[in-house]
DNA sequence: TCGTGAATGTACCGATTGGTACAGATTATG
DNA sequence: CATAATCTGTACCAATCGGTACATTCACGA
């Protein structure tokens, strides 16, 4: 596939934040235009498929980031315990210590799940499986590893919801530390 | 306050489902009308404040339901361990074994949080505090009780997100059983 | 300096949004 | 039956939605 204009790449993080803050349907072309400083002409030039293509590009970037920065290290780091610790630290940074919301989680709860269902499931499954792998390599019995991983992935999502519901971002860090204790304890 | 027409009460559960499925902004008057079988005239007669009043009424019903069926029993049941078990069973039933989403959680993640922020926080705080109370009465040290409660409330939200992301409602029941083990173990 | 294609802003499209106005139907009360 | 209050459907409103069309501007190679 032909390389898209460079500007496109720069837009994706902005689009990500807009989708995070407003959700898929809530992210109108008006607010996207305002945040990117671009008119519809430019937006549709970079993303001929409109909003759907924008969201798809954002999802692709997120998938790639998590694969590179979380899943692969969890699977491949020779020190699985260190990898688990590092992955939780990266998670805290990525979600801005609870001030940022998980776009995939938001999508999962909304109507857009029908549109991106496969990729949403893949994002979560990738996380769970990578964590399962690390836990197993750290000595956990396979079944227990998978259970713990499933629990941790869900707990992270829940911590993001709760931190936002309480309007208390610090809750996210507390949750991550509890999760780390459970995983490594 | 004067009692609203009886029809109003019957509408609220329907409105709740619509808001759950579509979110606040996604629940257009068109779909609300279709689901309730009522025209705008009737809807605005029952809820002069429009969508905001509808959502507010739904939230009020949810708050009351949780207070009556979860929070108060957790605080008052002389057998706190039985109360915790019962509250988790009620939770599984309420969320239809993971097929139903938490409206308050959905609101917390969306833009509507600005509109209902206080009540969203109160819903979560009520849950956490009631569970903290039961755990303390069951013999947990106060700090540990509160931590466990916070973790459990977040975990329930996370389990709902994950169950929907994986499109695997059974995950919710699994999570609840793990939570029960942690709380009572 | 010119030409060319990419990049961009703007006007516009039909559809839909939340909300209002109001006339007519329905119901309860005398 | 008559009258009044309560409901309810429909037509309508301005604003906004996602998306298209197109004329203009821009950067850059020949």
UniProtKB/TrEMBL annotation, chains A, B:
Keyword DNA-binding: yes
Gene3D superfamilies per record: Tetracycline Repressor, domain 2 (1.10.357.10)
Keywords attached to this entry: DNA-binding, Transcription, Transcription regulation
InterPro entries attached to this UniProt entry: Homeodomain-like_sf, HTH_TetR, Tet_transcr_reg_TetR-rel_C_sf, YxaF_TetR_C
DNA-binding region: 28-47
Span of domain HTH tetR-type: 5-65
PANTHER family given in the database record: HTH-TYPE TRANSCRIPTIONAL REGULATOR YJDC, TRANSCRIPTIONAL REGULATORY PROTEIN
Protein name: HTH-type transcriptional regulator YxaF
Organism: Methylobacterium jeotgali
Origin organism lineage: Bacteria, Pseudomonadati, Pseudomonadota, Alphaproteobacteria, Hyphomicrobiales
Gene behind this protein: yxaF
């Amino acid at each position: 596939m032909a390389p898209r204009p460079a500007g496109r790449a720069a837009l994706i993080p902005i689009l990500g934040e807009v989708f995070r803050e407003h959700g898929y349907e809530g992210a109108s072309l008006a607010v996207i235009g305002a945040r990117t400083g671009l008119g519809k002409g430019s937006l549709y030039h970079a993303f001929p498929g409109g909003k759907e293509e924008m969201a798809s590009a954002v999802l692709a970037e997120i998938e790639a980031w998590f694969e590179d920065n979380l899943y692969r290290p969890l699977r491949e780091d020779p020190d699985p315990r260190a990898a688990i610790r590092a992955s939780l630290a990266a998670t805290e940074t990525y979600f801005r210590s609870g001030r940022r919301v998980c776009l995939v989680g938001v999508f999962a709860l909304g109507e857009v799940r029908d549109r991106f269902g496969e990729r949403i499931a893949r994002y979560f499954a990738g996380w769970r499986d990578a964590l399962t792998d690390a836990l197993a390599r750290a000595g956990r019995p396979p079944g227990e590893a998978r259970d713990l991983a499933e629990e941790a992935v869900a707990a992270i999502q829940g911590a993001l919801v709760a931190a936002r519901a309480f309007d208390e971002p610090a809750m996210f860090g507390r949750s991550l530390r509890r999760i780390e204790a459970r995983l490594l304890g």
